Each structure stands twice: as structure tokens, then as C-alpha cells.
Amino acid sequence: PDVVLDTDSFATAYTALNGWEFGGLITDPGDAMAFLYRMAYQCKSLLNFAPDGTVRMQVLDGSRVSAATYTQKNVVRDGRGGSGFVRESASLDALYSSVYVHFGTKAGGGTGPSAFSGIISVTPTTSSEGVPTTLQIYCDGALDRLGRDHRLDVYADFIQDYGTANLFLQWLVPRVTQRYDTLVFSSWLDSLARRLGDLVTITHPRLPQAKKSWNGEIIGQTFDPLAMTVQLSVRLLEVVPTGSLIWASSDLLAPAV
Hints:
The protein is α+β, with helices and mostly antiparallel strands and 257 residues long. Helix content is 19%, strand content 28%. The chain has 4 helices and 13 strands. The strands form 3 sheets. Strands 4, 5, 6, 10, 11, 12 and 13 form a 7-stranded mixed beta sheet that branches. The longest helix has 15 residues, at 162-176. The radius of gyration is 20 Å and the shape is globular. The N and C termini lie far apart (50 Å). 26% of the residues are buried.
């Protein structure tokens, strides 16, 4: 009853999700928060709950505009002797070469293949009807990096039709078949206004092409009360060229340039 919707964000999401159809029969929703997060994810979105009770819906696609820019001017030391800026390669465990989306629930609350009436998929060599064959290139690249097949099954209990399942698959595949780097850096207190899912722009000499502006998505945020800084974890949305990692994990506490 105390929840206040950020109506502008929901209106923006409505436009960005044009063509998506959504619905489901849920007989056992379980934990309310997990239920809402799962529902948002299946329409390529994230729900954010602000301390004042405001709920924002953030669509995680190219419809976003950059919420902030980070450079050497506002990337600061982390208060523990660290540089305040590190870059890490994503784990290969998070990389998938075959993606299957199960949709069309036969009975509410199902979490296994038998509970769904439809399936749509893409692998390095095959794709379901209507799925762009270009997605196979993503899967083939992941297979090459992994050296083995790694299958992802997503049970989309709120997606009931093939067309929406196809749209979801097209959004999902590039995100799970490519090895995106994660940046972790500290900044000033104005970064408390940032929320998970925000798109930000980063330009820093510790990234390849030092003058290039890289786009990233905030996946973590921590307030450090001792240093009076905010640490952000940002997942790059562009793949860094192979061999361009500037320093190893053992160098995470190297002095700032």
C-alpha cells in the first residue's frame, strides 16, 4: 500500500516493450519480491525499489540514455589504498553456447520442461523458426571460447506466445553468449542517485582506447561511510578486444595512474 510507482519509467517501458505480450496463471507466487523480479526479467527489465518506496521499471536495452559519465575527474581512490578503478573479465561459467526458452505454461508455477507447452531455441548450428540466424554466430563464438557446449534453459512462465518468446530470446542471447568485462570503481556521493540497470558512460586511461567512451550497465552499488564514496560495479555492454586486458587480478591494488 505504501509503494509509489515512478510513472515516467513505466510509461517509457510501455513504449520500449511494444509488441510484447505478457500474462500468466500463477497459483503459488511464493515470495512477492522474487515474483516481481522474475516477472520483470522476462520482459527484459529490472524493478528498482528506492528507499522512499518509489518503484522504477528499467528496460535493459538500447532504449536507455546514459544516466552519468565517469572519467578520471570523478573516479576516486577507494579509501583503502586502492586505485578506485579495476577491470575484471567475466567468468566462463557465465557463458552459454545454447539457449532454450520454455514458454506457455500448462499449469501455474511450473519450473520444469513438462510444465510448458512451447520452446524456442538457438544453438551454434540450429535455430527455431523465425529466430534470426545471426544469433547462431553469437552461440558459435561462445562454443569456440568454451571448447564445449554449455546449455541455458530459461523457464518464462509469464510468456505465453511464440512471438514474445522470440523477442525475449533475441534480447537474451547476446547477453549470455559474450564475455563482457566488469568494472569496479569508486566515485563521489552523487552516485548514490544511480540505480541498478542504469546505463552509464565511462572514459578512462585504464581501458583500451583511452579516449573511447564505453557504455556500461550498473549491476552493483555499495556506500562506503568511512571513505564517503560510492563503489559501483558496471558490466560493460561492449566486448573488449581479446588480449587488451591491461593488468591482472593481482594488480587490483595498484596505485592510480
